[in-house]
Design a protein that fits this description.
Blueprint lengths: L2 E5 L2 E4 L4 E8 L6 E8 L6 E6 L5 E3 L7 E6 L4 E6 L8 E9 L6 E2 L3 E6 L1
Parallel strand pairs: 2-11
Antiparallel strand pairs: 1-3, 3-8, 4-5, 4-9, 5-6, 7-8, 9-10, 9-11
């Protein structure tokens, strides 16, 4: 059974930093493409950052240069280092996994990030 468990969310003031983690189990983690998404109630889910099994990364323009996605294949863990946080970064953050040639089909339960001004 595949499980993705996020942690590291919380409340922080604007300009602060947080690091999210996503512990994966039940899958050959090193072969999967991973991503972080976020969603605010009433709005569409937004892809924040992705990391290919080979390590290539992509970022949404709104977070580029502020967020860094990384993975530790030995630990089966995905990270999102978030810096210079803004109130508009407030959202529920989800990690997701997919076989790299397919759509995302595994999702975590989410971790809340709240940034106050």
């Amino acid at each position: 059974q595949v499980q993705l468990v996020e942690s590291g969310g919380g409340s922080v003031q604007a300009g602060g930093s947080l690091r999210l983690s996503c512990a994966a189990s039940g899958l050959a983690y090193e072969t999967y493409c991973m991503a972080w998404f976020r969603q605010v109630p009433g709005k569409a889910r937004e892809e924040v950052a992705t990391i290919h099994r080979l390590g290539f990364t992509t970022y949404a323009p709104s977070v580029k240069a502020r967020f860094t996605i990384s993975r530790d294949n030995a630990k089966g863990t995905l990270y999102l280092q978030m810096s210079s946080l803004k109130p508009e970064d407030t959202a529920m953050y989800y990690c997701a996994a997919r076989v790299c040639t397919q759509d995302y089909n595994y999702w975590g339960q989410g971790t809340q990030v709240t940034v106050s001004s």
